[in-house]
Every structure is written in structure tokens, then in C-alpha cells.
């Protein structure tokens, strides 16, 4: 009698387990990329570091794997935006485009940080959370409030023509300047009107300092 196909999925007692391509460590209470996937990521990014022009299929393969990887690499979602914007520029699946500057910057970030930032803690300590709400309006101004504090200022003239995401970051910086204690809180949630900055959108920073 041949063994059941499910038998191959059995694992002996261990403190680490591979689940859907993610390694779960019950001692460190951490989810991270297994070593073989981390090696593949490093090899893939090394190849892209020498690319000048690519096809839509190439970009889809890269962004698909990076999206999977970003589940266990802190702040990684924010560094897919340039690649997604570049991917949307393709008119046909067979066209070949030069890599945009934004896409190159995202690739450079991925080639630098994920190797050291591999892993997220899946059991976090409870903290008192301060919600900070910010919003921007074209060339008009920046505004926000947190607790009993609020601010409203005009957008600096030198930044009025910049992308809305840049202005969202300016509003965050202004909130910190108005109340420096924000940057030292252990529990902080940024609530932005622009979901193009996913790393800060309704994210709780549970380690000391602003990340």
C-alpha cells in the first residue's frame, strides 16, 4: 500500500515551520523568508541591477515576488510604488521599455535593506496608540490634528508643484515639528488621505522612535 500524498507534508517536532512559503519561528515569534527564497531574492535583484530595458512580463515577475516578500519585510510595501507605476506604462505585453528612475530607486532599496530586515514579529506588545490625522489640498496647504492639537499651514511655494505624496510627507514632518514628542512614542498610527503611501497609512509603530 503506497503512502498517502499528505504523508510528505508531515514534519517532525521543530520550532520552525514553512507555511505557504513563509518560515514561522515559534521561539523568536517571527515570520520571515526562508534562506532559499532570500537567496533567490538576492540573485533576482542582482540581475535587475544590470537591466536597462525590460518587458511587461519581466516587471510582473519581479513585482509579484516582491509583493509576496513584502509580507515579512517591514516598510517594504512603500517601495513597490515606483515599480507599479512603471508597470502601468506598458501599452502592450510585448513592448520593451527603459527602466524609469522611480523603478530604479525602488530596486536599489530592495537590493540594500531586505537582507537585514528579513522578518516581522507576529505577536506585538500592547501600547497606547496615538492617532495622527493629516491631509493636503493641492497647492493650498497642509493640515492635521492629533489628540487636542492641530495645525494648518500653507504649502511651501517650492513644493507646490511636487507630487501629492511628497506633500503628504511634508504634513507628517510638520506634525512632528509641532509636537516633537510624536517621534518618541512607542505606539503611533498615521492616518493619511493618500493611500499611495501604504507604509504609513494606518500603520502602528510599536518600537521606540518613528520608523
Number of strands: 11
Strand content: 15-25%
Radius of gyration: 21 Å
Helix/strand structural class = alpha+beta
Series of H and E elements = EEEHEHHEHEEEEHEE
Distance between the termini: 57 Å
Regions with little confidence, pLDDT below 50 for 5+ residues = 198-211
InterPro entries: Hepadnavirus_pol/RT (IPR052055)
Structure explained in plain terms:
Helices cover 29% and strands 22% of the residues. The protein is α+β, with helices and mostly antiparallel strands and 211 residues long. The protein has 2 domains: 32-121, no CATH class; 130-205, Ubiquitin-like (UB roll), CATH 3.10.20. Strands 9-8-7-10-11 form a 5-stranded mixed beta sheet, covered by helices on one side. Strand 2 (22-25) and strand 3 form a beta hairpin. Helix 1 runs antiparallel to helix 4 and helix 3 runs antiparallel to helix 4 (101-112). The termini are far apart. The relative contact order is 0.11. InterPro entries: Hepadnavirus_pol/RT (IPR052055).
